[in-house]
């Protein structure tokens, strides 16, 4: 922290363990609720990125989490340990008899995180027990879990507020956890009200008092969670808790998408394998889509605007030397520079995708340019292909002339009647053509999208019986331009699956039925295309 | 910065000057463009709040700004000085002949802000002149403006990067500005890449080298702009530049909505009159509305979620003592606490909400039980009230008999035709009744939800003209039971806003049109209910 001539930052290859809580503390955020499938997908993405720990649920307070822990145990992870989270034993009970601790052990993870109180007033006024019993609860719990061979991380709730009120007691709490065998002591700024200077000073003092590894857990209520986490590391913490995109209750948790590059690219700490850093933007966007929240395009490092340049002066300078207005290279975190007047997109990423379909094309082939132009046009309309890879593949194929449509839509009409009698209130008429043959049919459904989906399948099934295998497994809608109220553009993402795999397609339109239709058509065509290719092989 | 026992923060009544650049640097953000009227409205709101400076435009680069400066001169401001912003004189020219400086003076403000380069490489490689000429440009410009009696604030662009590359030169730049008579030297972290520790150390060194007042100007590219600004103040800066809601290019400028309460409520500096602090949330929302950007509901201090509590454990603790999970009182910044309903929230949470409507009911009243039963039934159907507080309130009122519907739906019918001609492909017919009066009407729209929304507003507007104020700002759909494909249950969340606040409503149905309809009706009824209650007060 002190100034040393020009060496304001120490370059340090020390390993810092990232502890992701997107699935646990992140699930406390307003509007967030994950299915078991959502959680498994996020686990896979975080493990691929290379975080050290993934805190995934609280089996004691949420019985639904047990299915997740059973299923995640079947997955082989490369980098991460899965964490089950819970409280210490209850006041006046025995650790071995505590139901929550039994659920925690039953989750079957190798590592656990438990939280306990470290602010004297919280013990006496909220928990309503003695300061001694609180120390015993923490010690007993950790010893019990350690006797089962678990790695145990201890979250000292309200640590900084506690230290400011009663430093001796908050240190006693840490020492009780350390003596019981905790592997890491995490200092929590639970209310998010602490300042960088005090986080630095208190962490440094704790560092001198205990030998156990120190962690940091910050909330963003003062908009300083990232800086607070960084300063804790500079004061000696080696474990950082946070969430992807800062998802979390109130103003969010410390944002790992900023902390990770700050620590690794700027300060030289080692958090994840260096070659994985370029996955960061994709992981951030993927989590936003799964959590069904609007991705923050102004987010440092991982937002679309993070490397966008508008002012003419700035753009000139960026062309002369990107260092003029960019603190890191956008590619280092898998993002791209956006020049807002005349966009120049990242061609090499695209080329890799094009070569998967046609390996003969090069960076400067006219066909590559044609695909690029079409994608820009679609992105301008609101398409976003990060999560809709199947639609992306169809677009590339169409532009390369490697695609023959399976059918042609001639017409459709949907009628919705309210009030509905037993849910079936919509009917759809559809007319399609396959080659020279036409088919007109109709179906009823629960709502217009369902009616249309059923009518389309009915019309196509006699030509393509494999359509019966498609199951629509998820359907998400986002409003793109919210100023225009219900006439705004909507983006529909449809996830489909058959017995072998799942795939996601996208449709954008001002009309939700039309957007859904486009995504449905892509879903069907992608399935038929895949079956056709397998038949050829 | 250093630890002093428990006194980690100095309480300091020192005056800190807030310099708001929402209208100048904020206008560099993607998607932001203000009319002259917009700018005048924001000036009035900022002056009422009590900031010291309002940087409002760059008359040299934007001739349209002249009209603004002419009109703003007619307004009497209570707290703020208006600032015109511009560059130093051009390379090799005379300050008195420089066109930009002439425009700057023609703006007629008492105070000006000029920027100059303080990073040697930027002078030689971007500006392409000598280091000496750059010093002369800065000195000449400031002397010229001072000779016209202006207060002159000097922005040292790229100061921190410059200091790290060549500390001697960057200090020469500051000294040249100070000797020429600058009233304040602003250290800019133009690329937003600096770290809190180095900002603190460098600001402290500058403080020792020059006697002139020091300012700080940060960008948020490393998500540390707020912390960096705070540390600069703790190191001796007395002037802080930023924008409302952090509006600004790339990842935004330092957010005054967080810096202000951090400095004044937490550290005890004096930035604005104490009695004005409770205006903060309203000013933040007002600027979002005028700038036409979605207000960030997770924003510290001024977002709807900033004091929202979800977990049952947290809620119990907040009821026992708000300090448990709140770093400041929501009312201190003009915000309010939100207790979110969810499966983890218990009866005490519910009771607090019920008591807001009927204070006479107790935990064991039969009516409380009735509300609880109805909520469980709705949650079982797929309703989730944690984000849809407004629908929640309507449900409670209905169960308590404290609700009279504003209208009755008699019938509706929606027809969707494809292919669509110019997007307008849907039409809706609706029949409603208000008391004994019936209204039947129809509307066309982009998609069925839009058509229905428009038809409903059209039918109701003659009874309730305030409906015209409602703006639909977000629309989200989640599939609840994805196994059933497109016939699955969907949950629609609609966020609406007017000039004062925003509210969220929910609808669940197997039919997306029906679910949307329910959420739309709640949105309208909640607005009318709120207006009615205000009228009664």
TrEMBL record, chains A, B:
Pathway: Amino-acid biosynthesis; L-isoleucine biosynthesis; 2-oxobutanoate from pyruvate: step 1/3. Its EC number is 2.3.3.21. GO terms for biological process: isoleucine biosynthetic process; L-leucine biosynthetic process. Residues 16-278 form the Pyruvate carboxyltransferase domain. Keywords: Acyltransferase, Amino-acid biosynthesis, Branched-chain amino acid biosynthesis, Isoleucine biosynthesis, Transferase. InterPro entries: 2-isopropylmalate_synth_dimer, AIPM/Hcit_synth_CS, Aldolase_TIM, Citramal_synthase, LeuA/HCS_post-cat, LeuA_allosteric_dom_sf, PYR_CT. Belongs to the alpha-IPM synthase/homocitrate synthase family. This is Citramalate synthase.
């Amino acid at each position: 922290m002190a100034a040393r001539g020009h060496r304001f930052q120490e370059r340090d290859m020390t390993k810092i363990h990232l502890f992701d809580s997107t699935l646990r503390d992140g699930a406390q955020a307003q509007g967030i609720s994950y299915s078991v499938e959502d959680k498994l997908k996020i686990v896979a993405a975080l493990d691929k990125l290379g975080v050290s720990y993934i805190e995934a649920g609280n089996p004691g307070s949420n019985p639904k989490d047990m299915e997740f822990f059973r299923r995640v145990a079947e997955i082989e992870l490369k980098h991460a340990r899965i964490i089950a989270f819970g409280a210490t034993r209850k006041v006046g009970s025995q650790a071995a008899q505590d139901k929550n601790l039994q659920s925690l052990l039953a989750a079957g993870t190798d590592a656990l995180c438990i939280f306990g109180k470290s602010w004297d007033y919280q013990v006496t006024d909220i928990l309503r027990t003695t300061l001694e019993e609180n120390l015993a609860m923490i010690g007993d719990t950790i010893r019990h879990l350690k006797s089962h061979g678990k790695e145990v991380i201890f979250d000292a709730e309200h640590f900084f507020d506690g230290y400011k009120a009663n430093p001796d007691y908050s240190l006693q709490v840490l020492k009780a956890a350390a003596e019981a065998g905790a592997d890491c002591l995490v200092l929590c700024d639970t209310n998010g009200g602490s300042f960088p200077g005090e986080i630095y000073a208190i962490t440094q003092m704790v560092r001198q008092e205990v030998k156990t590894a120190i962690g940091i857990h910050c909330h963003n209520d003062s908009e300083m969670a990232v800086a607070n986490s960084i300063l804790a590391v500079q004061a000696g913490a080696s474990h950082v808790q946070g969430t992807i995109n800062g998802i979390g209750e109130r103003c969010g948790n410390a944002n790992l998408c900023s902390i990770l590059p700050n620590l690794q690219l700027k300060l030289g700490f080692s958090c994840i394998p260096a070659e994985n850093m370029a996955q960061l933007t994709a992981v951030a966007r993927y989590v936003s889509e799964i959590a069904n929240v609007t991705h923050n395009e102004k987010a440092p490092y991982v937002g679309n605007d993070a490397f966008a340049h508008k002012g003419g002066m700035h753009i000139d300078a960026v062309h002369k030397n990107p260092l003029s207005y960019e603190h890191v290279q956008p590619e280092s975190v898998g993002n791209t520079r956006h020049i807002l007047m005349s966009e120049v997109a990242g061609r090499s990423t695209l080329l890799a995708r094009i070569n998967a379909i046609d390996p003969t094309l090069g960076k400067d082939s006219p066909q590559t340019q044609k695909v690029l132009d079409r994608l820009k046009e679609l992105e301008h309309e609101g398409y976003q292909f990060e999560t809709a890879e199947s639609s992306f593949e169809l677009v590339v194929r169409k532009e390369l002339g490697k695609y023959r449509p399976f059918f042609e839509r001639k017409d459709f009409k949907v009628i919705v009647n309210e009030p509905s009698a037993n849910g079936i209130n919509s009917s759809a008429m559809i007319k399609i053509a396959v080659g020279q043959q036409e088919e007109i049919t109709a179906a009823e459904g629960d709502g217009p999208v369902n009616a249309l989906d059923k009518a389309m399948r009915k019309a196509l099934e006699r030509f393509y019986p494999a359509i019966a295998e498609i199951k629509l497994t998820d359907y998400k809608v986002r409003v793109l331009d919210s100023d225009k109220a219900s006439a705004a553009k909507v983006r529909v993402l449809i996830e489909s699956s058959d017995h072998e795999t799942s795939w996601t397609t996208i449709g954008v339109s001002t009309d939700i039925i039309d957007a859904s239709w486009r995504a449905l058509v892509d879903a069907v065509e992608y399935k038929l295309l895949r079956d056709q290719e397998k038949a050829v092989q």
